[in-house]
Amino acid sequence: MTLLLALFALTHAGYLAAGWSIGLLAIGAYALSVLVRGRALSKRVPLSRQRWMNSLPDEDEQS
Amino acid sequence: MTTPTEVENPRSEPAAAADFFAVNSIADASVSTGSATTKVLGWLTLAGLVVLLVFAFIISPEDSRETADGAIIGQFDAVRLLYLHVPAAVFAYVAFALTGLGSIIYLWKRSRWWDHVAHSSAEIGVVFCGVTLLTGVIWGRPVWNTWWEWGDVRIVTTLLLFLIFVGYLAFRSVPSEPRRQARNASVLAIIGALNIPVVNRSVEWWENRTLHQQSTLEELKIEDATLLTLMIGFAVFGLMFLWLLIHRFRVAWLAEEVEQHGLKQALRRRREEAQREAMVS
């Protein structure tokens, strides 16, 4: 609320509201899409295979 | 060179569950890419964002100064877009630089881990670079009296950087042989990353061909609350980048797991069909 009141009192308030809201909404929407994708994929992979930190060589190099 | 049928995936485990693709059928399946670390990072990012907003809109001063003849000039409150635009730009550079680094290591070590890091970082970089361009357009109108200036080298080189990595993501989204795609994408990413110092230095190299001012941070032309707010912006975007990178990396990892098991299932089914056909005949 205080932030909103502060925004109305500023010069170039429209540009500030547009810039900040577009910027934060874009990042927020992207973050949400990553979470949704992760949630959908997580349901299809057993926990035992959700090992994130292994650095394995490409299978091409194994052959 | 061996075919996929001849290669046992080093990650594979004995007899993968037959119902691997069945949603909700795995008893121990985690339902998200979150972990204790990402939860802490996420809450820290949100808390930092609130602090950033308070500093950006309430605590930091407007940009104004009095000239010798008594006129008041400056960007006034439009300067408050600085705290979003500059951190987004800097972390777009960081993201693309990490993509370049990951690509070099992938080409060197053939590590799929680094390929996932490169791919994930590029996607985040494109989002941050897009935010940089959008906020730049919006900021340019009140302070330069123009939305866009094709003659400005910083704007044009940033757009070029953005388009290169949009192309990189488009290339990676086309179905193709994974190793060849990763190799070619890595080369493209390294070429794209070479553009980062050009974007960053463009205001010094072509100082007469840009509306952007030269670096105010390097020469400490900003100070006090403005500098502190900008530093908070960097910290918040750093946390945000890390949080996004961890989650996006895990998405890439899971997608590969699903893809590899899809291939194995199909091969197993084909072998069983072939055996049945052989027995019948």
Entry keywords:
heterodimer; A: 63 residues; mainly alpha; 3 helices; rod-shaped; disordered C terminus; B: mainly alpha; two-stranded antiparallel ribbon; 7 helices; 2 strands; disordered N terminus
Question: What do these coordinates show?
Answer:
The complex is a heterodimer of chains A (63) and B (281). With 63 residues, chain A is an all-alpha fold. Chain A has helices spanning 2-8, 13-42, 59-62. Mean pLDDT of chain A is 78; it is low at 53-57 and 59-63. Mean pLDDT of chain B is 85; it is low at 1-29. In chain B, helix 4 packs antiparallel against helix 6 (195-205). In chain B, a hairpin with a 5-residue loop joins strand 1 and strand 2 (72-76). With 281 residues, chain B is mainly α. Chain B has one domain (45-60, 74-280). In chain B, strands 1-2 form a two-stranded antiparallel ribbon. Chain B has seven helices and two strands; from the N terminus they run H-E-E-H-H-H-H-H-H. Classes of the chains: A mainly alpha (63), B mainly alpha (281).
Largest interface: chains, residues each:
A-B, 46 and 70 residues
Q: Multimeric state of these chains?
A: heterodimer
The secondary structure category of chain A is mainly alpha
Helix content of chain B: 55-70%
Order of helices and strands of chain A: HHH
- Which regions of chain B are unreliable across 5 or more consecutive residues at pLDDT < 50? 1-29
Main beta sheet of chain A, described?
none
Shape verdict of chain B: elongated
Global Rg of chain A: 22 Å
Order of helices and strands of chain B: HEEHHHHHH
Which structural class fits the helix and strand makeup of chain B? mainly alpha
Task: Please indicate the count of domains of chain B.
Answer: 1
